[in-house]
Write a structure and sequence with these properties.
The complex is a heterodimer of chains A (110) and B (111). Chain A is mostly beta strands. Chain A is built from no helices and 11 strands. Helix content of chain A is 0%, strand content 56%. Classes of the chains: A mainly beta (110), B mainly beta (111).
């Protein structure tokens, strides 16, 4: 069964606005990763946050992790049309397997 | 893109026929994975490999087998394809618990 669940399932925002999506999971993890998938393409790794980290930044991306609540959030600041994609969280257990959620579809309107 | 290729990229086959999908990497990564992606389900792990000849099942392994005789190649076989195996199949590679790099995908249709 899937470990991570994203919320919301879909998000529509205006260019320049921030987009926030959340991920909840059920069991203990080694790390949590976020991926982006453009329509018809493979997944692209965005950011990895380890279980002993609370926050990480990469460019316009900010990821938080709260292991006590078993949740993570991905914030995309100053969104652009090119950010239109599906975003997936994936939890990694100590057996190196990723468990993906169903994803959040983000549409950035010009 | 990381050095991962998948072949074929598209395939249409009939129910009951065997199908083999190939994943090839040039990164010398130890771990290789096969996923399927269906609407509403995200990606689900079929099988993975942690070394040559070392493989294990994922959450949706029924009806699939894999083989890895060389570091660079990971084969996924549908022994007798069914319509429920119509999906997009992705291969990925990684080093231990680090990020995974995904191939471009294979769209398989079973009629």
């Amino acid at each position: 069964s899937q470990q991570g669940e994203e919320d919301p399932q879909a998000l529509s925002i205006q260019e320049g606005e921030n987009a926030t999506m959340n991920c909840s999971y059920k069991t203990s993890i080694n790390n949590l990763q976020w991926y982006r998938q453009n329509s018809g393409r493979g997944l692209v790794h965005l950011i990895l946050i380890r279980s002993n980290e609370r926050e990480k930044h990469s460019g316009r991306l900010r990821v938080t992790l709260d292991t006590s609540k078993k949740s993570s959030s991905l914030l995309i600041t100053a969104s652009r049309a090119a950010d239109t994609a599906s975003y997936f969280c994936a939890t990694v257990s100590n057996d190196y397997k990723l468990s993906f959620g169903a994803g959040t579809t983000v549409t950035v309107r010009a | 893109d990381a050095g991962i290729t998948q072949s074929p990229r598209h395939k249409v086959t009939e129910t009951g026929t065997p199908v083999t999908l190939r994943c090839h990497q040039t990164e010398n990564h130890r771990y290789m994975y096969w996923y399927r992606q269906d609407p509403g389900h995200g990606l689900r792990l079929i099988h993975y490999s942690y070394g040559v000849k070392d493989t294990d099942k994922g959450e949706v392994s029924d009806g699939y087998s894999v083989s890895r005789s060389k570091t660079e190649d990971f084969l996924l076989t549908l022994e007798s394809a069914t319509s429920s195996q119509t999906s997009v199949y992705f291969c990925a590679i990684s080093e231990e618990t680090s990020e995974q790099y995904f191939g471009p995908g294979t769209r398989l249709t079973v009629t």
